[in-house]
C-alpha cells in the first residue's frame, strides 16, 4: 500500500493542508484526494510481467544468473552454450512468478471484497447504499452498530445521549476495551435529521494524511463559527462501532490515506537461521569460486606462455597471454557457477512449502471442538521450528483456558466436591461419564455449570443454615453485574473470572444473583426474591487481599460478608472458630494440593448503632483531604475483625488439555519456557506450579519484586551467586563474528540444580534498562523456568528482543491475544492460538493451532523433521554440486586451462534440473529418522537441532572436503582407466566424448548411491524418484545421442553414438562401480565408526527402534499427579475491584433489559471473557466469521469510566 | 523413559465428539491418508554392524578376484611401442624431424627396426600415439562444423564461425576448422624381416577403424555422384597437401567418410592419446598374426611435433575382452577390495570393543 501511496503523491505536490467541504463533491474533487478504494495488490495483467521480472532480478541469485547469461553470449568467453543457464533460470522465474501471481490474485480478491462492502452514503438528501470504494472525501455516511468504520471520519452525530459513540479499536492498537468518541454539539444536534445533514456545509481544514493514530488537529468552520477538532471527534478506519445504534460521519481521509493504511505494510520479514548461515556460506562460495577461477586463469597464463605459444601451428591464438588469462577467468566463472546453484533456493522454498503442508494436514494437531486444523501461515520458517531454544508463552488463553470452574468447597468443616464410591469409600475420578448434579429444580440455573457431588445439592435442599449462609455470601459479596435481557436469561459480567465462577455456583445452588442497583442487591434465595440493602463495599486490593460487603437483609438485620485469602481472613476470625479453622485448613491444603485456587469465606453480624457510627467515620474519612487511604484502611481493619468462618471455596483455573505434559516434554528437549503474563504474581506462580513449570523439588524459586533499580540488580545478582557462586567472571560475553559486525553473545552458564525465577512487571521495567539487561539475562538464563508477571505487551516484546540480542538461540513466542502480538512479531517464530476469541495473534503469527499441547508436536515432530530434512538437503545438495563442479577444476590441468568442460552440455543443463532434482526433493519431503511416536517419546532427539549440529559451517566444510575427495576420484579413476587404452574391438577408447560420458555416468551413479546412503526412509516415492532419475539419466542420454536428434541439429547433438559405443564396454561399468564404491566407502566407514565410538542420540534411538522391530512405542496413559503443599489462597485476578463503580451510580447507563439481540457465546458458566475483538481486517484478510463480539456491559462500564476522566 | 502421549493425541480429537460431528457436516479435519499424515510405509535401512561389516567383507571378496582377473588379463595383452619422433640425434627420424616444412613436396622417409620377442596372436591393432598434443583444448575442440561434416551443402559453402581462422581461404575450406587442419598425416608401413632376410610388407587394413556411427551417421559426404565436383568450390585445409576428395581412391573411404579423417576428428580427452591407425588381421589359426622376429617400420614423416615438444609413437597391441593393455583397473580393484576387507576387520574389532557397550547403553532421560 505504500506503493500505492507513493503513486498518488507523486502526481501532485505534497499535501500540506487538507480542505474539505461537506456535501460538496465538486469542490472536494478539485483537490484530487484519494478515493476510498484500496489496493494492496501489486500487479495488473499488463504490468505483471515487467514488474514481476524487475522484482525478481533484484534478488541477488537471479541477478547473478542474468550476469552469467550475459557472459555466456560473449563468444570469446562462452565456455558453455546459453541454454545451460537459461533453462534453470526460466524455470526458477516461472515458478516464482506463478507463486507471486497467485498471491496477487488473492490480494485482488480481498481488495475487491473490502472495496465492495456496502455503506449508507448521504447523497442529495437521501441515504443510498454505496460500495466502500465509491465513498469520497467530504461525503457524509451513516454507520450502524457493529459496522466497520469505512474511512477516517469526523463524527457528526450519534444515536446516544451527549453525542457519544463507542468503538472498539482492537484492529488498530490491539486494545480490546471500548473507547468513547464524542461529536461536537453543533453537529451532534443535527441527529439523524437527513435534511439538516444534507444541508450541512461545514468546511474542515486539517492536517495532511499521516500515520499517527493518537493525534489529529483541524478546524471545522460552520455558520461562520470556527470549532477546533481533535482526536476525540475522529473515527478511524479499522475500528468497529459498538453499542451505538447509528452515527453519522464526514469522510476526512479515504482509502490509502487513512491512518490505518498509512500504518500498514511494515510487516517484518523473518528469515531462518539457516538462511542467515546460507548467506555467509554463499559469500564463502563466491570467494571459493573466485579463488578457483584465479588459480585457473593464472594456470592458463602459464600454459599459454609455455605450451600454447608453441602449439600455434595447430591452434592459432590472437590474444596476448594476459588477455587470454582474463578471458579464461570469466569462462571458468561460467563453468564453475554450479557451486552457487540457482536451483538451491527454489528447492528450499519447495521443501519448506511441502513441510508446511504437512503441518496443515496433521490430524494430530486438529482440534475437533473448534474445528480448527493447525495452519502454517508462513511457509518459509519450517526448519527453524527444529531449533527452538526459548519459548515465550502467554498464560491466559494459552496455558489456561481462561475458564474458572467452581470445583470444591468446604462448608462448616465438611468438604464437598469429591465423588465417593459408596462401596469402596474411595474417591472416584471425575470423568465425562459421571452423573452430574441435576439442577433442574432451579429454573435460573446455568446449564453449563457442572458439578458431580450430589451431597451438596442435597444439603442445600435440606436447608442447612451453614450451606445457605455459604451460598448467600457468594451471591452477595462480589462486584459482578447481571444482565437479564430476557426473563430468566441471566448473563453475568465479572471483572475476574473467579468471581464469575463463584457467583454462578451460588446461582446454580439456588442463590441467584439477579440484579443490583447502587443501593441494593437483589437475589433469589431458593425461589424467593429478596432484596438486600447494600450499605458498603469494602473493595478488594492487592494489600487487603479480601473484599467485604455490608448489607441489610429484608428483615433488617445487618451483616458483613467477607471473602479473601486464607492467611488474611484467618487473622481476623473470632477465636471461637479455632476448631473449624483446623478442619478447614486441612481441606484448604487438600484443595491447594490439587492446584485449586482457594478463598476463605467469613461473615459477621453487625450492631446497628456501631455500624451507623462507623458509617459516619467512614464518610468523614472518605472526604478527608489528607491520608484518606490510610484512614479508610484503618476503618476497614476495624470492622473486618472477629468474623465467623463459614468455609472455603476451591476454584480450578482450567489448564488447557495436556499443558503439563507438553511442558514436561519440552523441558526434556532442553527448551526453556518463559511465561510472560499480564496476570498478578500469585496467579502466575500458581499456574506455574499447576503446569509443572515450577516444581516443589526445585532448589529455589527466586522472586524479584523490588521497586528500585538497585534492589532489582542486587536481587538478580544474589540469585545468580546462589545458583553458581563463581559466576562473576566477565568472560560470559563471547564475540560472534558475522559479516563484519560483532554482536556479543552471552554464553550459557552451567548451574547445578533446578531454579525458577519470578519477576514482576515493575522490576522487569528496571531490569530491561540497558545497564541491567545483561544482569537479567544471565540470571534468567540460568533458571529452568522464568515467569514474568504483570508485563505489558511492550515488555513482552522487549524480553524476547533481549534474548534474541544476546543469545545465539532461536526463540518462539506463543499467545492468543492482541497483547501477545508484539511478542509474536518479535520472536523468530510466532505461534498463535486459534479458535479463541481474537484473531489478532493468529493474524500476526507464523503458525497457528488451537491447543497449546500441539506445540510439542509442532516442535518435536514437524520442527525436528523439517530441520533434519533441510539440513540433509543442504548437505547433500552442496555435496552433489561441488562434486559435479570440482571435476572441471581437475580437468583444467589436463586441457590447457582452456575452460573445456568435462561433461556434455546437455548433461550440464539437466544435471540439476532432471537427474538429481527429484531424489533429493523426495528425501527432503519424506525423510524421517524415526517416526513421530518415537520423536515424542524421546524429546532429547530435539537437542541436536538447538545446537545446529546437522548443518553448520563445520558440516559445510566437511561437505566440501568430501566433494573434493569424490571429485578427485571421479576424475582420476576414469582418467586412469581410459589412459592409453583401447576398447574391446581395438578402437581407441579415450576420446573426449567417451570420457565425458564415462565421467558423467560415474557422477550420476555416485550421487545416487550417496543419496541412497543418506536416505533413511525409503517410501515408494523415494524409490520411484531414485530409480526413476537413474533411469531418466540413461534414457535421456541415449535419446540425446540418437541419430535423429543429431540430424536435426548436428552441432548441438554432436555426441551421437557415444552412448551406444561406450556403455557396451565392460571396463566402463567396472569403472563406474569402482568410482561409486570409492566415493562412498570412507563415508560408510566413518559413519559406522562414529556410531560405534561416539553414538549420537539419533544413532542410539534408531538402533533401539531397529532392534525392537516395533513400529512405535505404545502410547502411555499417565495421569499427572501433583503433590503440592503450596496454597494459593488467591482468587482475585487483575486489578482493583469495581466497588467504586458499583456505588457511584454511574454504571446504570441503560435500563437492565436491552432490546438488541444479545447472544451469549457461553464459554463458561455465565461468564463471558472480556472480548478480544473478532477478526476483522480492514485490508480484507480473512475474517473470523464465527464470532461476532457483542458489547458487554463490562466494556460499557469501562468506557463510561474512561470518558469521565 | 518419557511419559508422553495423551490418549487424545492418537487422532487429534476427543472420542466423544465423533457422534457430534456426524458425517453430514463438513469439517476442516485433515484427511487421514498415509501420505498426509506422513505414515507412508517405508524401508528404513540403518548402518548396523549386522549390515555394514558383512558388506565390507562381501565387497572385498568380490573385488579382489575381479581385480586379479583384470590384472592377469591386462598382463597377457601384448603391446609394443615404438617412438619415432626423432628428437634424438641417433634416431633414424632425426633428419626428417629437423627439416620440416608443411609445404615440402618431397616426402621424408625414415626406417626404424624393432624385434618382437613374442608372437602376437589374433588380430593386432596398430595405433599412432601423440603426446603433449592438446586435442582437448576448448578452442580446438570447438573448431569444427558438424553440419558440414554431415554433408550439409549450406555449411559446405558457408562454414560455421567456430572454424575461424580456418574457415575461409579465398574459398570456404572443407573440412573447416583447426581439428581438420591439423590432421595426422604420417604414413606408417610395417615390414617383417624373414629370418632369411627378405622384407615382407605386412598388409594393413585401413577400413573398420572408425566407429560405425561416425562413419555412417555423423560423417557424410555432400550429395553428389562425383566428389570432385561437389567440392569444386571449396579450398583444402591450409596444412593439407591434398584436397579432401583425394584422401583415398576408394569411394567408400574418401571425402568426409575417410576413416583416417574420422578417427582424427574424434578428439582425444587428454593431451596424451593414441588413435587406431590400421588393423593387422589374423590370417589363419596356424601362424600367429605377427610372428616372433625382426620388423621394420617405415615412416613417411610429415607431421611436425617438435615445435610443441610432442612425441610420436607407433603401437602394436592385441586386445582382450576388456580392451587394450591397462593394468590400472586390476590394481585398483585388488587395492579397493583389500581396503574393504581390512576396514571390515578394523571395524569388526571396534564394534566388538566399543559398539555393544554404547548401543546397549540406555538413552538418558
From TrEMBL, chain A:
<dbReference type="GO" id="GO:0005524">
    <property type="term" value="F:ATP binding"/>
</dbReference>
<dbReference type="GO" id="GO:0045332">
    <property type="term" value="P:phospholipid translocation"/>
</dbReference>
<feature type="binding site">
    <location>
        <position position="394"/>
    </location>
    <ligand>
        <name>ATP</name>
    </ligand>
</feature>
<feature type="binding site">
    <location>
        <position position="816"/>
    </location>
    <ligand>
        <name>Mg(2+)</name>
    </ligand>
</feature>
<feature type="transmembrane region" description="Helical">
    <location>
        <begin position="83"/>
        <end position="102"/>
    </location>
</feature>
<feature type="domain" description="P-type ATPase N-terminal">
    <location>
        <begin position="20"/>
        <end position="86"/>
    </location>
</feature>
<feature type="binding site">
    <location>
        <position position="563"/>
    </location>
    <ligand>
        <name>ATP</name>
    </ligand>
</feature>
<feature type="binding site">
    <location>
        <position position="819"/>
    </location>
    <ligand>
        <name>ATP</name>
    </ligand>
</feature>
<feature type="binding site">
    <location>
        <position position="790"/>
    </location>
    <ligand>
        <name>ATP</name>
    </ligand>
</feature>
<keyword id="KW-0472">Membrane</keyword>
<dbReference type="InterPro" id="IPR006539">
    <property type="entry name" value="P-type_ATPase_IV"/>
</dbReference>
<feature type="binding site">
    <location>
        <position position="499"/>
    </location>
    <ligand>
        <name>ATP</name>
    </ligand>
</feature>
<feature type="binding site">
    <location>
        <position position="678"/>
    </location>
    <ligand>
        <name>ATP</name>
    </ligand>
</feature>
<dbReference type="InterPro" id="IPR032630">
    <property type="entry name" value="P_typ_ATPase_c"/>
</dbReference>
<feature type="binding site">
    <location>
        <position position="820"/>
    </location>
    <ligand>
        <name>ATP</name>
    </ligand>
</feature>
<dbReference type="GO" id="GO:0005886">
    <property type="term" value="C:plasma membrane"/>
</dbReference>
<feature type="transmembrane region" description="Helical">
    <location>
        <begin position="955"/>
        <end position="977"/>
    </location>
</feature>
<dbReference type="GO" id="GO:0000287">
    <property type="term" value="F:magnesium ion binding"/>
</dbReference>
<dbReference type="GO" id="GO:0007030">
    <property type="term" value="P:Golgi organization"/>
</dbReference>
<feature type="transmembrane region" description="Helical">
    <location>
        <begin position="323"/>
        <end position="346"/>
    </location>
</feature>
<dbReference type="InterPro" id="IPR036412">
    <property type="entry name" value="HAD-like_sf"/>
</dbReference>
<dbReference type="GO" id="GO:0140345">
    <property type="term" value="F:phosphatidylcholine flippase activity"/>
</dbReference>
UniProtKB/TrEMBL annotation, chain B:
<keyword id="KW-0325">Glycoprotein</keyword>
<keyword id="KW-1133">Transmembrane helix</keyword>
<feature type="transmembrane region" description="Helical">
    <location>
        <begin position="46"/>
        <end position="72"/>
    </location>
</feature>
<dbReference type="GO" id="GO:0045332">
    <property type="term" value="P:phospholipid translocation"/>
</dbReference>
<dbReference type="GO" id="GO:0016324">
    <property type="term" value="C:apical plasma membrane"/>
</dbReference>
<dbReference type="InterPro" id="IPR005045">
    <property type="entry name" value="CDC50/LEM3_fam"/>
</dbReference>
<dbReference type="GO" id="GO:0005783">
    <property type="term" value="C:endoplasmic reticulum"/>
</dbReference>
<keyword id="KW-1003">Cell membrane</keyword>
<keyword id="KW-0812">Transmembrane</keyword>
<dbReference type="GO" id="GO:0005794">
    <property type="term" value="C:Golgi apparatus"/>
</dbReference>
<keyword id="KW-0472">Membrane</keyword>
<keyword id="KW-0333">Golgi apparatus</keyword>
<keyword id="KW-0968">Cytoplasmic vesicle</keyword>
<protein>
    <recommendedName>
        <fullName>Cell cycle control protein</fullName>
    </recommendedName>
</protein>
<dbReference type="GO" id="GO:0030658">
    <property type="term" value="C:transport vesicle membrane"/>
</dbReference>
<comment type="similarity">
    <text>Belongs to the CDC50/LEM3 family.</text>
</comment>
<keyword id="KW-0445">Lipid transport</keyword>
<keyword id="KW-1015">Disulfide bond</keyword>
<keyword id="KW-0813">Transport</keyword>
<dbReference type="Pfam" id="PF03381">
    <property type="entry name" value="CDC50"/>
</dbReference>
<feature type="transmembrane region" description="Helical">
    <location>
        <begin position="328"/>
        <end position="350"/>
    </location>
</feature>
<feature type="region of interest" description="Disordered">
    <location>
        <begin position="1"/>
        <end position="23"/>
    </location>
</feature>
Amino acid at each position: 500500500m505504500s506503493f500505492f501511496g507513493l503513486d498518488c503523491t507523486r502526481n501532485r505536490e505534497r499535501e500540506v493542508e487538507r480542505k474539505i467541504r461537506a456535501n460538496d463533491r465538486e469542490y472536494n474533487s478539485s483537490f484530487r484526494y484519494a478515493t476510498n478504494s484500496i489496493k494492496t495488490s501489486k500487479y495488473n495483467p499488463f504490468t505483471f510481467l515487467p514488474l514481476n521480472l524487475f522484482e525478481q532480478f533484484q534478488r541477488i541469485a537471479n541477478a547473478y544468473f542474468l550476469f552469467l547469461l550475459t557472459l555466456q553470449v560473449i563468444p570469446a568467453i562462452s565456455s558453455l552454450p546459453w541454454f545451460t543457464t537459461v533453462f534453470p533460470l526460466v524455470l526458477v522465474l516461472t515458478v516464482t512468478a506463478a507463486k507471486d501471481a497467485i498471491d496477487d490474485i488473492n490480494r485482488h480478491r480481498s481488495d475487491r471484497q473490502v472495496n465492495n462492502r456496502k455503506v449508507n452514503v448521504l447523497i442529495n438528501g437521501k441515504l443510498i447504499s454505496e460500495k466502500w470504494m465509491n465513498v469520497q472525501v467530504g461525503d457524509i455516511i451513516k454507520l450502524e452498530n457493529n459496522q466497520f468504520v469505512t474511512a477516517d471520519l469526523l463524527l457528526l452525530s450519534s444515536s446516544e445521549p451527549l453525542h457519544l459513540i463507542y468503538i472498539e479499536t482492537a484492529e488498530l492498537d490491539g486494545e480490546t476495551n471500548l473507547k468513547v468518541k464524542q461529536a461536537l454539539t453543533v453537529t451532534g444536534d443535527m441527529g439523524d435529521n437527513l435534511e439538516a445533514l444534507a444541508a450541512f456545509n461545514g468546511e474542515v481544514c486539517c492536517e495532511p494524511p499521516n500515520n499517527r493514530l493518537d493525534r489529529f488537529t483541524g478546524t471545522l468552520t460552520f455558520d461562520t463559527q470556527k470549532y477546533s477538532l481533535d482526536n476525540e471527534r475522529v473515527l478511524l478506519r479499522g475500528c468497529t462501532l459498538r453499542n451505538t445504534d447509528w452515527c453519522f460521519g464526514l469522510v476526512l481521509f479515504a482509502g490509502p490515506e487513512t491512518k490505518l493504511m498509512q500504518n500498514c505494510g511494515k510487516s517484518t520479514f523473518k528469515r531462518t537461521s539457516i538462511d542467515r548461515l546460507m548467506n555467509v556460506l554463499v559469500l564463502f562460495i563466491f570467494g571459493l569460486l573466485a579463488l578457483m577461477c584465479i588459480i585457473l586463469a593464472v594456470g592458463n597464463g602459464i600454459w599459454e606462455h609455455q605450451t600454447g605459444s608453441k602449439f600455434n601451428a595447430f591452434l592459432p591464438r590472437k590474444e596476448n597471454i594476459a588477455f587470454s588469462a582474463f578471458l579464461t577467468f570469466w569462462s571458468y566463472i561460467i563453468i564453475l557457477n554450479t557451486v552457487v546453484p540457482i536451483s538451491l533456493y527454489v528447492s528450499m522454498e519447495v521443501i519448506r512449502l511441502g513441510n508446511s503442508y504437512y503441518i496443515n494436514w496433521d490430524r494430530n494437531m486438529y482440534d475437533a471442538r473448534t474445528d480448527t486444523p493447525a495452519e502454517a501461515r508462513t511457509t518459509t520458517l519450517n526448519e527453524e521450528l527444529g531449533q527452538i531454544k526459548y519459548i515465550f508463552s502467554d498464560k491466559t488463553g494459552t496455558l489456561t483456558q481462561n475458564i474458572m470452574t467452581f470445583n470444591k468447597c468446604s462448608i462448616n468443616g465438611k468438604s464437598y466436591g469429591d465423588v465417593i464410591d459408596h462401596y469402596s469409600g474411595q474417591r472416584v475420578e471425575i470423568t465425562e461419564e459421571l452423573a452430574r448434579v441435576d439442577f433442574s429444580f432451579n429454573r435460573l440455573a446455568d446449564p453449563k455449570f457442572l458439578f458431580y457431588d450430589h451431597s451438596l445439592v442435597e444439603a442445600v435442599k435440606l436447608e442447612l443454615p451453614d450451606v445457605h449462609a455459604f451460598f448467600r455470601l457468594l451471591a452477595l459479596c462480589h462486584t459482578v453485574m447481571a444482565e437479564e435481557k430476557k426473563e430468566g436469561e441471566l448473563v453475568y459480567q465479572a471483572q475476574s473470572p473467579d468471581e464469575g465462577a463463584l457467583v454462578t455456583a451460588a446461582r446454580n445452588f439456588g442463590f441467584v444473583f439477579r440484579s443490583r442497583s447502587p443501593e441494593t442487591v437483589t437475589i433469589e434465595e431458593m425461589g424467593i426474591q429478596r432484596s438486600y440493602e447494600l450499605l458498603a463495599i469494602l473493595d478488594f486490593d492487592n494489600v487487603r487481599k479480601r473484599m467485604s460487603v455490608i448489607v441489610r437483609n429484608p428483615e433488617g438485620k445487618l451483616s458483613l460478608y467477607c471473602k479473601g485469602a486464607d492467611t488474611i481472613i484467618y487473622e481476623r476470625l473470632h477465636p471461637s472458630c479455632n476448631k473449624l479453622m483446623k478442619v478447614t485448613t486441612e481441606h484448604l491444603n487438600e484443595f491447594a494440593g490439587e492446584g485449586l485456587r482457594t478463598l476463605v469465606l467469613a461473615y459477621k453480624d453487625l450492631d446497628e448503632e456501631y455500624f451507623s457510627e462507623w458509617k459516619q467515620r467512614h464518610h468523614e474519612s472518605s472526604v478527608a483531604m489528607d491520608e484518606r487511604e490510610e484512614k479508610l484502611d484503618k476503618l476497614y481493619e476495624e470492622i473486618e475483625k472477629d468474623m465467623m468462618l463459614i468455609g472455603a471455596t476451591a476454584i480450578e483455573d482450567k489448564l488447557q488439555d495436556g499443558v503439563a505434559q507438553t511442558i514436561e516434554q519440552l523441558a526434556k528437549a532442553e527448551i526453556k519456557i518463559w511465561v510472560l503474563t499480564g496476570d498478578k504474581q500469585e496467579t502466575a506462580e500458581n499456574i506455574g506450579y499447576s503446569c509443572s513449570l515450577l516444581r516443589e523439588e526445585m532448589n529455589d524459586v527466586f522472586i524479584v519484586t523490588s521497586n528500585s533499580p538497585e534492589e532489582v540488580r542486587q536481587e538478580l545478582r544474589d540469585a545468580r551467586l546462589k545458583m553458581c557462586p563463581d559466576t562473576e567472571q566477565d568472560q560470559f560475553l563471547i564475540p560472534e563474528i558475522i559479516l563484519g559486525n560483532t554482536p556479543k553473545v552471552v554464553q550459557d552458564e552451567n548451574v547445578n540444580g533446578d531454579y525458577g525465577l519470578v519477576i514482576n512487571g515493575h522490576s522487569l521495567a528496571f531490569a530491561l534498562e540497558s545497564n541491567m539487561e545483561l544482569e537479567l539475562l544471565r540470571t534468567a538464563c540460568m533458571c529452568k523456568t522464568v515467569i514474568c508477571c504483570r508485563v505489558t505487551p511492550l515488555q513482552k516484546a522487549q524480553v524476547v528482543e533481549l534474548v534474541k540480542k544476546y543469545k545465539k538461540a532461536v526463540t518462539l513466542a506463543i499467545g492468543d491475544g492482541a497483547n501477545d502480538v508484539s511478542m509474536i512479531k518479535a520472536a523468530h517464530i510466532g505461534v498463535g492460538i486459534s479458535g479463541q476469541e481474537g484473531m489478532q495473534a493468529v493474524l500476526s503469527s507464523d503458525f497457528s493451532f488451537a491447543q497449546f499441547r500441539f506445540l510439542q508436536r509442532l516442535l518435536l515432530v514437524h520442527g525436528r523433521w523439517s530441520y533434519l530434512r533441510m539440513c540433509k538437503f543442504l548437505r547433500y545438495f552442496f555435496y552433489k554440486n561441488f562434486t559435479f563442479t570440482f571435476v572441471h577444476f581437475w580437468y583444467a590441468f589436463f586441457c590447457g586451462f582452456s575452460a573445456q568442460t568435462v561433461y556434455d552440455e546437455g548433461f550440464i543443463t539437466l544435471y540439476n534440473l532432471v537427474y538429481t532434482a527429484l531424489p533429493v526433493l523426495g528425501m527432503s519431503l519424506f525423510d524421517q529418522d524415526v517416526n513421530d511416536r518415537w520423536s515424542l517419546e524421546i524429546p532429547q532427539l530435539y537437542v541436536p537441532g538447538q545446537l545446529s549440529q546437522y548443518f553448520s559451517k563445520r558440516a559445510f566444510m566437511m561437505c566440501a572436503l568430501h566433494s573434493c575427495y569424490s571429485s578427485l576420484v571421479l576424475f582420476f579413476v576414469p582418467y586412469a582407466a581410459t589412459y592409453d587404452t583401447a576398447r574391446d574391438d581395438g578402437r581407441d577408447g579415450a576420446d573426449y566424448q567417451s570420457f565425458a560420458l564415462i565421467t558423467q555416468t560415474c557422477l550420476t551413479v555416485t550421487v545416487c548411491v550417496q543419496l541412497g546412503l543418506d536416505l533413511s526412509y525409503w517410501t515408494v516415492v523415494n524409490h520411484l524418484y531414485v530409480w526413476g532419475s537413474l533411469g531418466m539419466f540413461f534414457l535421456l542420454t541415449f535419446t540425446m545421442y540418437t541419430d535423429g536428434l543429431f540430424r536435426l541439429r548436428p552441432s548441438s547433438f554432436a555426441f551421437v553414438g557415444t552412448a551406444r559405443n561406450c556403455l557396451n564396454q565392460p571396463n566402463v561399468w567396472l569403472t563406474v562401480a569402482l568410482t561409486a564404491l570409492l566415493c562412498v566407502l570412507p563415508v560408510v566407514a566413518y559413519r559406522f565408526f562414529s556410531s560405534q565410538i561416539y553414538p549420537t542420540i539419533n544413532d542410539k534411538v534408531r538402533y533401539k527402534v531397529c532392534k525392537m522391530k516395533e513400529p512405535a512405542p505404545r502410547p502411555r496413559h499417565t495421569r499427572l499427579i501433583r503433590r503440592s503443599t503450596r496454597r494459593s489462597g488467591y482468587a482475585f485476578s487483575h486489578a482493583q475491584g469495581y466497588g467504586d463503580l458499583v456505588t457511584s451510580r454511574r454504571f446504570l447507563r441503560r435500563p437492565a433489559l436491552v432490546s438488541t439481540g444479545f447472544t451469549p457465546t457461553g464459554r463458561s458458566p455465565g461468564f463471558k471473557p472480556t472480548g478480544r475483538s473478532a477478526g476483522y481486517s480492514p485490508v480484507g484478510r480473512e475474517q473470523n466469521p464465527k464470532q461476532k463480539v457483542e458489547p458487554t456491559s463490562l466494556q460499557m462500564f469501562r468506557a463510561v469510566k474512561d470518558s469521565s476522566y | 523413559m518419557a511419559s508422553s502421549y495423551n490418549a487424545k493425541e492418537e487422532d487429534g480429537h476427543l472420542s466423544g465428539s465423533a457422534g457430534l460431528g456426524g458425517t453430514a457436516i463438513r469439517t476442516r479435519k485433515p484427511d487421514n491418508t498415509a501420505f498426509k499424515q506422513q505414515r507412508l510405509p517405508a524401508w528404513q535401512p540403518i548402518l548396523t554392524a549386522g549390515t555394514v561389516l558383512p558388506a565390507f567383507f562381501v565387497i572385498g571378496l568380490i573385488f579382489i578376484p575381479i581385480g586379479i582377473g583384470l590384472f592377469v588379463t591386462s598382463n597377457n595383452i601384448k603391446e609394443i611401442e615404438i617412438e619415432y619422433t626423432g628428437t634424438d640425434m641417433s634416431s633414424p627420424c632425426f633428419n626428417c624431424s629437423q627439416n620440416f616444412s608443411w609445404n615440402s613436396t618431397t616426402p621424408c622417409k625414415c626406417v626404424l627396426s624393432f624385434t618382437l620377442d613374442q608372437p602376437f596372436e589374433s588380430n593386432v591393432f596398430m595405433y599412432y600415439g601423440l603426446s603433449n598434443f592438446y586435442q582437448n583444448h576448448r578452442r580446438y575442440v570447438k573448431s569444427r562444423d558438424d553440419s558440414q561434416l554431415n554433408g550439409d551443402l549450406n555449411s559446405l559453402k558457408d562454414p560455421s564461425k567456430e572454424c575461424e581462422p580456418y574457415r575461409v581461404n579465398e574459398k570456404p575450406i572443407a573440412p573447416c576448422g583447426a581439428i581438420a587442419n591439423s590432421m595426422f598425416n604420417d604414413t606408417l608401413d610395417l615390414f617383417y624381416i624373414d629370418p632369411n632376410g627378405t622384407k615382407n610388407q605386412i598388409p594393413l587394413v585401413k577400413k573398420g577403424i572408425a566407429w560405425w556411427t561416425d562413419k555412417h551417421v555423423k560423417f557424410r559426404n555432400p550429395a553428389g555422384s562425383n566428389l570432385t565436383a561437389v567440392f569444386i568450390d571449396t579450398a583444402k585445409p591450409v596444412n593439407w597437401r591434398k584436397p579432401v576428395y583425394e584422401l583415398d581412391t576408394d569411394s567408400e573411404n574418401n571425402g568426409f567418410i575417410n576413416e583416417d579423417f574420422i578417427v582424427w576428428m574424434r578428439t582425444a580427452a587428454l593431451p596424451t592419446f593414441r588413435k587406431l591407425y590400421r588393423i593387422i588381421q589374423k590370417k589363419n589359426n596356424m601362424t600367429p598374426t605377427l610372428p616372433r622376429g625382426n620388423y621394420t617400420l617405415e615412416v613417411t614423416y610429415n607431421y611436425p611435433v617438435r615445435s610443441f615438444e610432442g612425441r610420436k609413437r607407433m603401437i602394436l597391441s592385441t586386445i582382450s575382452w576388456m580392451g587394450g593393455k591397462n593394468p590400472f583397473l586390476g590394481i585398483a580393484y585388488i587395492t579397493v577390495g583389500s581396503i574393504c576387507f581390512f576396514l571390515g576387520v578394523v571395524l569388526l574389532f571396534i564394534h566388538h570393543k566399543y559398539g555393544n557397550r554404547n548401543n546397549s547403553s540406555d538413552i538418558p532421560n
